[in-house]
Structures are given as structure tokens and as C-alpha cells.
């Protein structure tokens, strides 16, 4: 089996459905993504898994110092994932599963070779991704997720997919197009259609370059 292209929601799959023989809609969120991908990899082990989709970008004012904020419609490859909101919120602060010795929150690396090849074709940068169950639609939670994870972008599936691929020893890469900034909602600043179009253009270039296993 060649590369399996996966995506969370149907719209995110539009750039690849009908253009590649192996695609899979995972569903939205960590649980759906884990269940769908585990079932698929237990049946057939592909040469690689590539996750594509849209993502929110943390504003510069919310991130750790020294990190560059992405703009709406930017493309990026996620080099590693951190699970940003699995843990316990206490009066003294947030304790993640790692601190509680209850689980691994990452960083979970993506496959460096495959990630690098796709990045070179697209001319886009590498970032750290935060995977969350609660999207950062308010400034307070956006800043908390960004500072806690050290990430530049946020999704609801990336870390789960990375963890499943690590468990099955399948090379994994992740392509994201920025559809919005996280934080207090300003729907006029969203460009979902534009982000999907960016993914479509990007995947056409990836297919043409022949870099997928």
C-alpha cells in the first residue's frame, strides 16, 4: 500500500479525494482520529501516512519569545506535536499528564525525511503543533496553550495521528494551511475557503514532485 492521505473533516479532504488511491476521513478530535487510524493501520500498513488539514495559528503576543507567528493562508509542515490540554487544572496551575506521570504529552516527532522532502517542494517552514480537545477561541486559552506547548499552530488531531503512527512504526508527515488566528473570535479574519485552496494547490505540487512513498 502506498501513502495513506488522512484528514479530519470532509472539506479538508477535498484536495485529495479522487486524486489519490488511498485516502481516509478520520473524524474530528483525538478520539475519532485515534480510532479511525488504528483500525486502518491494523488492516493495512501503508508506506507512510500524511495528514493534511487547516489549522489555527497562535498570535505572536501569545507565544513564547523568539517564535515567529504564521499568517492566515500560510502553509507549514509540522515537525513535532505536543498534547497541550490533557491533564488537571488546579488552583496553582495546569498539571499535564507528563507531570502527573500518567502519560506522554510529547513532543512527538514527525518523520524528518518525509517532512523535509514535502517542505522542500512547497518552500514552507517547519513548526511545532499543539493538539487540543478545546479549541482556543478566546485569548486566555490561546495564550495558555501556546505558552504551555511552545507551539505555533493548533489542531485537534495532529498529536493523536502522530502517536498512532509511532506505535505502528509508519513514517508520518503533516501539512497544514492556516485558516485563522486563535484567540478572541473575529470571524471576518477567517479564510476557510482560501486555506482549502492553498491545500489543493500544495497537494498538486506534492503529487507532481513524486515525493510520496
Commentary on this structure:
The chain is an alpha/beta fold. The chain has one domain (4-209): Rossmann fold, CATH 3.40.50. It is 31% helix and 26% strand. The chain contains 5 helices and 10 strands. The chain has helices at 30-43, 112-122, 139-149, 158-168, 192-209, and strands at residues 4-7, 23-25, 49-57, 75-83, 87-90, 93-96, 108-109, 125-131, 153-155, 172-181. The protein has a 5-stranded mixed β-barrel with strand order 3-9-8-4-10, surrounded by 4 helices. A two-stranded antiparallel sheet has the order 5-6. α3 (139-149) links the parallel β8 and β9. α1 packs parallel to α4. The chain is globular and about 50 Å long. The N and C termini lie close together (9 Å).
Keywords:
globular, two-stranded antiparallel ribbon, alpha/beta, 5 helices, single chain, Rossmann fold, 213 residues, five-stranded mixed beta barrel
Structural topology:
Blueprint: E1 4-7, E2 23-25, H1 30-43, E3 49-57, E4 75-83, E5 87-90, E6 93-96, E7 108-109, H2 112-122, E8 125-131, H3 139-149, E9 153-155, H4 158-168, E10 172-181, H5 192-209
Parallel strand pairs: 1-2, 1-3, 3-10, 4-8, 8-9
Antiparallel strand pairs: 3-9, 4-7, 4-10, 5-6
Helix pairs in contact: 1-4
Amino acid at each position: 500500500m502506498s501513502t495513506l492521505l488522512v484528514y479530519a473533516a470532509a472539506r479538508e479532504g477535498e484536495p485529495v479525494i479522487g486524486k489519490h488511491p488511498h485516502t481516509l476521513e478520520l473524524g474530528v478530535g483525538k478520539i475519532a482520529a485515534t480510532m479511525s487510524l488504528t483500525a486502518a493501520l491494523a488492516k493495512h500498513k501503508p508506506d507512510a501516512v500524511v495528514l493534511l488539514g487547516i489549522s489555527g495559528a497562535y498570535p505572536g503576543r501569545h507565544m513564547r519569545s523568539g517564535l515567529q507567528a504564521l499568517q492566515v493562508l500560510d502553509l507549514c509542515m509540522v515537525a513535532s506535536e505536543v498534547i497541550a490540554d490533557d491533564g488537571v487544572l488546579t488552583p496553582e496551575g495546569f498539571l499535564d499528564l507528563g507531570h502527573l506521570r500518567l502519560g506522554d504529552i510529547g513532543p512527538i516527532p514527525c518523520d524528518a525525511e518525509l517532512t523535509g522532502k514535502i517542505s522542500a517542494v512547497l518552500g514552507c517552514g517547519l513548526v511545532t503543533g499543539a493538539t487540543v480537545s478545546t479549541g482556543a477561541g478566546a485569548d486566555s486559552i490561546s495564550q495558555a496553550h501556546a505558552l504551555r506547548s511552545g507551539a505555533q499552530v493548533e489542531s485537534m488531531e495532529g498529536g493523536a495521528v502522530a502517536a498512532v503512527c509511532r506505535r505502528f512504526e509508519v513514517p508520518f508527515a503533516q501539512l497544514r494551511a492556516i485558516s485563522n488566528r486563535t484567540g478572541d473570535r473575529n470571524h471576518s479574519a477567517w479564510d476557510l475557503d482560501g486555506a482549502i485552496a492553498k491545500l489543493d494547490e500544495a497537494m498538486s505540487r506534492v503529487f507532481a514532485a513524486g515525493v510520496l512513498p
